[in-house]
Amino acid sequence: MTLLVKICGLSTPETLDVALDAGADMVGFVFFPPSPRNVSVEAAQELGARVRGRALKVALSVDADDDLLAQSIAALAPDILQLHGKEPPARLEAVRARFGLPVMKAIPVETASDLAAVATYAGAADRLIFDARAPRDATRPGGLGRPFDWRLLENLDSPVPFMLSGGLDAGNVAEALGVTRAPGIDVSSGVERAPGVKDPDRIRAFIRAARAAI
Question: Residue 56: exposed, middle, or buried by beta-carbon count in 10 A (0-12, 13-18, 19+)?
């Protein structure tokens, strides 16, 4: 199968270049100030220009209003918008209609009942991303390095293409793919040496392990 690999939370030219050279299909940039991976408009302009069509650019936001989305789009010129908050289907439809870009919606997963959201977003999202549900006291909804029970996705018949996220790294990505048969994977903290600090060797190792697993 063809596997999409997304490296998210990139914030420096050096680590972006590593991800691109290693063969990432998608590169993600975070527009959410509470995150240690947040990028400024100025940084996003520089980083986005470096991609030069070598991968799809993803702009991640959390419950952002139209003004913030417009700023991120003007800076990054993304190929996809990733909405990682509590945005309902109607919000996705409004964003897609206004900005004319595909929308990927993050679904927090802890129990099987959380997968009911798949049908809810089927007509609104172009892609889903399953991430571990954050603790109640968390200051951000993702990028926490927490996996969920991948067996919940066994035999999932999703009407929308999806990606697997949450606690992935080079050491467990093969197992995760074996259980879920996910057509796409997303990593952020699993390729870092500290929150928000990407490690070039870990990026290369993750992409290498993911490609070897299929």
Answer: middle
- Amino acid at the residue 88: P
pLDDT in tens, 99-126: 999 999 999 999 999 999 999 999 999 9
Domain 4-212 part of CATH 3.20.20.70: yes
**Contact call for residues 117 and 109 (beta carbons, < 8 A):** no
Q: Where are the domains of the chain?
A: 4-212
Residues 6+ apart with CB under 8 A from 54: 20
Among 128, 168, 118, which residue's Cα sits nearest to residue 148? 168
Rounded to an integer, what distance in angstroms lies between the CA atom of residue 88 and that of residue 149? 24
Strand partners, 162: 128
